[in-house]
C-alpha cells in the first residue's frame, strides 16, 4: 500500500475519532506534567527543600546552643547552603532553557542539546566543587578553632599535606561525576544528537 | 504513531494537552494556529518523553506477513492500515513526524515552519520515506523478511 493511498483512510479515521470529553480534558489539565524536564525541575525543588529543612534548623541550633561557642560551624554550614542556593538556581535556569515547545522542532532540538550539554558540564563541575569547598571550609574551620584554643596543629593538618590528599580525591570525584552524568544523560543526549543530525542531512 | 503502548500514548496525549494549555497565553498569532499546535505536539512527542515503557512493538511483527490464502483480505482497509502502521512504527522519530504531517495534508511550506527543515530537504526526505514504506509493506505483504 502506498502512503498516498493512506491519506484518504487517515482522513476517514480522523472524522470517526471520538471527540474528547471536556470533563476528561479538565481532569488531564489538573494532572502534573510527566515530561522529563518537568520531572527534573520537581526533583530539584524537592532537593532544595530538603537542604533548607535540614540546614536551617542546624544553623540556628549551632548559633543558639553551647552559648554560641560553636557558631563557626553555623557559618560553615551557611556558606555551603549559599553555594547550594546558587547551584539549584543555575540548574533550574538551565532546565527552563532546555525546552521551547512552541519553537520549530529543529531549533528546539538544537537548543535542547546545547542546554543539556551546559547542564551536564555544570552538573559535573559543581558536583565536584561543592564537595571540595565543603571539605576545605571544614578544614579551615577546624584549624581556626584549634588556633583559637592554642592547640598544636599536627603535620597532617598542614596545607601541603591536605593539598596532596585533596588533589587525587578531586580528580577521582570528577571522573566519578563524569561517569554518573553520562549514565544519567548519555543515552538521551546521543538520541537528541542523532535526531538533529538526521534533520540536517540531505 | 508515537508511543509503543496504549499507556505511552495516553501519557503523550496528556503531556501534549498540558503543554498546549501552558503555552496558549504566549500564542501571539505570528504563525497559523495549526502550525503552533503541531510544533507543540511534535516537540513533546519527539524530545519530550524520555523514557517509554518498552514491552515490545505495538503491533505483532507476525501480523506483517499475510499468508497467500488470506490475500483477499489484503484489500481490506483495516488490514492495509495495520500493515502501514506497522511499517510507520519502524520509522525513526523524525520520519514519523514527516509522515504524520504528510498524512495531515500539510504543505511543504507549513512542514518547514513546523519542523525547521528546508522545503527541498523535506521533499528529498519524504520521497525516501515513501520508498522505505513501500519496501517495508511489500516485504510484509509477501512475507519477505
What is the β-strand count of chain A?
Answer: 0
- Low-confidence segments of chain B: 53-69
The residue-averaged pLDDT of chain B reads 78
Q: Encode the helix/strand succession of chain A as letters.
A: HHHHHH
Can you describe this structure?
The complex is a heterodimer of chains A (202) and B (145). Chain A is mainly α and 202 residues long. Chain A has 6 helices and no strands. Chain A has one domain. Chain A starts with a helix and ends with a helix. Chain B has one domain (6-141). The radius of gyration of chain B is 17 Å and the shape is globular. The chains are: A mainly alpha (202), B mainly alpha (145). The A-B interface holds A 1-7, 9-11, 13, 25, 28-29, 31, 33-37, 99-109, 112, 188, 192, 195, 198-199, 202 and B 11, 13-15, 17-19, 21, 23, 26-27, 36, 39-40, 42-44, 46-51, 77, 80-81, 83-84, 92-94, 97, 99, 102-105, 113-117, 121, 124, 129-130, 133-134, 137.
Please provide a brief summary of the model:
With about 200 residues, chain A is mostly helical.
Compile the SSE list and pairings.
The complex is a heterodimer of chains A (202) and B (145).
Chain A: H1 3-16, H2 22-30, H3 36-64, H4 71-97, H5 105-148, H6 159-200
Helix pairs in contact in A: 3-4, 4-5, 5-6
Chain B: H1 6-23, H2 33-48, H3 77-89, H4 93-103, H5 108-115, H6 119-141
Q: What labels describe this entry?
A:
heterodimer; A: 202 residues; mainly alpha; 0% strand; B: 145 residues; 6 helices
